[in-house]
Amino acid sequence: MGTKLKVVAEKEEFLLATGDDAKKIMSLAWRSKAMCEKRGIPVRWFYESRTRDSVRSACEDCTVRPECLEEVLIRHEQHGFFAGYSGNQRKAVYKRWLAAHIRRGKFPPGNHKIGSYRPQPIDRKIAQLLYKADHHVVKPDEGSMLQYLFEMLGDKPATIGSRLTAMERQGLIQKIWASKRRIEAIELTQDGLERIEADPSFIEA
To answer: 3, 31, 132, 171: which could join 138 in a potential S-S bond, CB 3.0 to 4.6 Å?
Structure first.
């Protein structure tokens, strides 16, 4: 069996899972309402360019696209045409979706990765603390947000700083942590020195 056919077979096995196996992944009850299901579109069509128009047409008329999209994003499905998006189109959607979860102080279920970035346990804790601070559930004392995270997490400031930078580079968090104190942004962002040279007033309160 060729690599492409093997991938299709594996995806078909997942999509046709029933009983406890399917429940372990997530509830697929909505699938009976999916237009592709009603039209009897074969699973392999989702992975073949020559059948893309038929699949796209079904997606356009489908009432459960949000549920379908949520499933493929949780699975981090990178191939095929699902929920009205190709694999390449879903990359941008995936990043926005993951960032939205992080803004709510939590990571979605699943093993997520964007480029070279893969969430670590400390990232999940940082997201929770940033959410609480941003929504005034917990209000850090005046001064350093980095120091606040250090005190709450008990980890090295350099470690926390590098994780914040990694998340910010991927657009997963905004610089709400840096806005607490401008000097921190200069210390932790990659272009800090260039920004100081270009505009010395940047470090002024």
So the answer is: 132
What digits encode the pLDDT tens for the residues 30-68? Answer: 888 999 989 998 888 888 888 889 899 999 989 998 888
3-state SS, residue 176: coil
Least Cα distance to 12 among 34, 40, 60, 45 occurs for: 45
Q: Which two tokens stand for residue 98?
A: 């993951």
Which DSSP string corresponds to 90-121?
HHHHHHHHHHHHHHTT-PPSS---BTTB---H
Ramachandran bin of 18, using left for φ above 0, alpha for ψ from -120 to 50, beta for the remaining angles = beta
Helix axes 157-169, 145-153, angle to 10 degrees: 110
Give the Cα separation of 184 and 187 in Å (integer): 5
Block residue for tokens 């499905």: 77
What is the structure's pLDDT at 2?
Answer: 45
Q: C-alpha distances in angstroms, 5 versus 10, 43, 76?
A: 9, 12, 19
Q: Give 85's DSSP letter.
A: B
User: pLDDT for 80-119, tens place per residue?
Assistant: 899 889 888 888 888 888 877 777 777 776 667 777 777 7
For residue 102, the tally of other CB atoms under 10 A from its CB is 22
83 phi-psi bin (left φ>0, alpha ψ -120 to 50, beta other): left
In sequence order, what are the residues at sequence separation of 6 or more whose Cβ sits closer than 8 angstroms to the Cβ of residue 1? 9
Spatial contact of 76 and 113, defined as CB atoms under 8 Å apart: yes
Secondary structure element (H or E) that encloses residue 59, with its range: helix 52-60
